[in-house]
Design brief:
CATH topology: Rossmann fold
Shape: globular
Distance between the termini: 31 Å
Order of helices and strands: EHEEHEHEHEEHEHE
Helix content: 25-40%
Largest sheet: 7 strands, parallel
CATH class: Alpha Beta
Radius of gyration: 17 Å
Bound molecules: NADP nicotinamide-adenine-dinucleotide phosphate
Strand content: 15-25%
Number of domains: 1
């Protein structure tokens, strides 16, 4: 998408300082958006401070943290949810309760709390109101040993599609970008011989998120946009 596509938009990025966040923040800003970035600590945000209009620490797995962030920003057109993390590798019967609680908090409650806090702002934005979640292919196609991760991502997807149905009343949208795994330039540099066949590059995900926030995507609502190779 070209420069100017998102001129005048105010977009909040949750989990902006992680693996994917900096590339997304830069792509949205290059397309013209003003960016509000949030992550767990101020230090996480150093990588986006030069390009974000607002960068602040917020604990987004709590209702209070999400609400404080939203109320500090005033008008917001788009919310991009990138808060992530992983626990897994155990069969159902061996899945630690701690892992369940960690993933429920990180991947489910952070989506619930941020969308609840931003819903009035995104509804007030009318046709510009956009929410996007980055999810995993295992939510729809679970694999052994990844039950807690798959289930919490599936819950977050269902919540997002519900939000899309509600935003439709004011002309807004909510969609899910689905990947199997993410590859960063740093990962490619560290492992130049690896093909990363089933991985999706951060630039490709960022481009999709620019599109989902643009006028061109105003009729795309409640969709799962798969950016990973089809399962054979
Ligand atoms: N990486 C992949 O291969 C992959 C695959 C499928 C889907 N996804 C999804 O894609 C999205 C982006 O992935 P990613 O690799 O960029 O995620 P990530 O780096 O694991 O997480 C993004 C950021 O969220 C932060 N965060 C954690 N807890 C938080 C809290 N309570 N409040 C605010 N921020 C918090 C993380 O900090 P810490 O790192 O310090 O915890 C990190 O800076 C995530 O939703 C992820 O689930 C990723």
């Amino acid at each position: 998408m070209s420069a100017g596509t998102l001129d005048g938009r105010r977009i909040a990025v949750a989990g902006a300082g992680g693996g994917l966040g900096p590339t997304v923040v830069r792509a949205l800003a290059e397309a013209g958006a003003w960016i509000a970035a949030a992550d767990r600590t101020d230090a996480h945000l150093d990588v986006v401070r030069d390009v974000a209009g607002d960068a602040r620490a917020a604990d987004l797995v709590t209702a209070e943290g999400a609400a404080e962030w939203a109320s500090a920003l005033g008008e917001v057109d788009g919310l991009v949810h990138l808060v992530g993390g992983w626990r897994g590798g155990n069969a159902i019967e061996d899945t630690p309760t701690e892992d369940l609680e960690f993933l429920e908090s990180l991947l489910w409650r952070s989506v619930v709390h941020t969308t609840r806090a931003f819903a009035p702002l995104l509804k007030a934005a009318g046709e510009r109101g956009r929410f996007a979640l980055v999810s995993s292919s295992v939510a729809a196609r679970p694999v052994a040993g990844n039950g807690a991760y798959a289930a919490t991502k599936a819950a977050a997807e269902a919540w997002t599609l519900t939000f899309g149905a509600e935003l439709a009343e004011t002309g807004g949208t909510a969609n899910v970008v689905v990947v199997q795994a993410i590859v960063t330039p740093q990962m490619r540099d560290e492992n130049p011989d690896k093909a990363y066949k089933t991985f999706t590059d951060v630039d490709e995900i960022a481009e999709a998120l620019v599109f989902l926030n643009s006028d061109a995507a105003r009729k795309m609502n409640g969709q799962r946009l798969s950016l990973h190779p089809a399962a054979r």
